[in-house]
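Worked example 3 (structure in, sequence out).
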């Protein structure tokens, strides 16, 4: 049932070209420029005019919410907040009439997320679910939503659910932005095509498998890792660090690259691997200077870069190359090498990557 792979985690990482495709299929028609999502269509007016969107989630799903924050604000011009469900439920959050809450959850059973949306629903918010498990508890509480269609995720560490969440959230943002006319026709069509091209590009990223396996061998004995990214890739840095912690038990931190100077840079010496999520985007020059700063302090730079980038390799000890893509969809590509890196480091250290210690697949108690 692992389909020839050593672990479910590896199988699920490799399934991503298919799962992302399954998620887009029947919804996004890039040639016609249409996005069909009935649950979202039903609430389109409310979403378009929402004074605020609040994403509620935990863990990896919370990271998907952070990427979505950038996408919704950019495309839809609606203020977005991203909340840890556990924090949101216990404070006395301000919820105004018309606020739209998007609950993001693979399992649909995470206790904190469930209670957080129940409370918000009582206060009059509209609850949309971006969920993988059909008919789950969160699905039952939600007014509407869109499933991720990633299929069962068995590995405890979330991989394919994350990219499917990003695909769904991007489709929702595009649909709303188009209807609201906060992006022009041309950009809308470009982004529809960019999204449709993601599955094939993910397949190309997976060709880096052997390269990443070698890198894992090289860096597996490090005690700490730093992951840095900016913009759409900042949450990807957080996700890369979380994956490594879960699977390899190596301490890792994700940071917005520019925040490094406000503290974490003190950690940098010749023993510290620093993973830069540095695909080409509006911030690229900025992150290149951050790379220079790490190199100047003798840190080991591993960078995830866009094909054709000739500058980053001169500042990196190791590079992982991903195909060119619009910055809005880039996280679905740049996260893949980080999933593989965590996987191969865990395997190299002899750990049970499908069932990391102390973790449960769904956290149904708070
Ligand atoms: C990370 C991981 C967890 C989950 C979190 C939320 O690899 O698996 O951080 O992402 O427990 O779970 P769901 O998405 O089921 O609500």
């Amino acid at each position: 049932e692992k389909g020839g792979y050593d672990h479910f985690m590896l199988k699920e990482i490799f399934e991503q070209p298919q799962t992302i495709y399954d998620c887009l299929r029947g919804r996004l028609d890039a040639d016609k420029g249409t996005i069909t999502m009935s649950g979202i269509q039903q609430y389109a007016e409310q979403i378009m005019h929402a004074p605020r969107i609040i994403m509620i989630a935990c863990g990896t799903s919370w990271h998907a919410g952070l990427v979505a924050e950038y996408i919704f604000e950019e495309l839809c011009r609606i203020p977005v907040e991203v909340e840890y469900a556990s924090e949101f439920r216990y404070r006395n959050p301000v919820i105004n009439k018309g606020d739209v809450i998007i609950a993001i959850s693979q399992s649909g059973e995470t206790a904190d997320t469930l209670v957080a949306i129940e409370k918000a629903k009582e206060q009059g918010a509209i609850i949309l679910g971006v969920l993988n498990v059909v008919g789950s508890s969160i699905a039952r509480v939600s007014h509407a939503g869109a499933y991720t269609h990633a299929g069962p995720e068995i590995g405890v560490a979330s991989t394919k659910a994350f990219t499917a969440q990003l695909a769904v959230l991007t489709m929702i943002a595009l649909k709303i932005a188009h209807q609201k006319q906060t992006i022009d026709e041309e950009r809308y069509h470009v982004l529809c095509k960019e999204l449709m091209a993601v599955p094939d590009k993910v397949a190309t990223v997976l060709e880096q498998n052997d390269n990443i396996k070698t890198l894992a061998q090289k860096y597996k004995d490090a005690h700490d890792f730093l992951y840095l990214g900016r913009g759409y890739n900042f949450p990807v840095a957080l996700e890369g660090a979380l994956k490594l912690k879960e699977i390899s038990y190596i301490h890792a931190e994700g940071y917005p690259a520019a925040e490094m100077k406000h503290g974490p840079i003190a950690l940098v010496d010749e023993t510290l691997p620093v993973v830069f999520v540095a695909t080409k985007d509006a911030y690229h020059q900025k992150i290149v200077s951050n790379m220079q700063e790490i190199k100047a302090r003798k840190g080991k730079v591993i960078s995830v870069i866009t094909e054709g980038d000739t500058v980053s390799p001169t500042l990196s000890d190791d590079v992982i190359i991903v195909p060119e893509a619009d910055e809005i969809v880039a996280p679905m590509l740049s996260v893949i090498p980080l999933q593989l890196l965590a996987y191969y480091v865990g395997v190299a250290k002899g750990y049970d990557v499908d069932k990391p210690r102390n973790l449960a697949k769904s956290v149904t108690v708070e």
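Notes: The first strand starts at residue 28 and ends at 29. The pocket of fructose -6-phosphate is lined by residues 58-61, 105-107, 110, 113, 157-158, 242, 246, 362-363 (CB under 6 Å).
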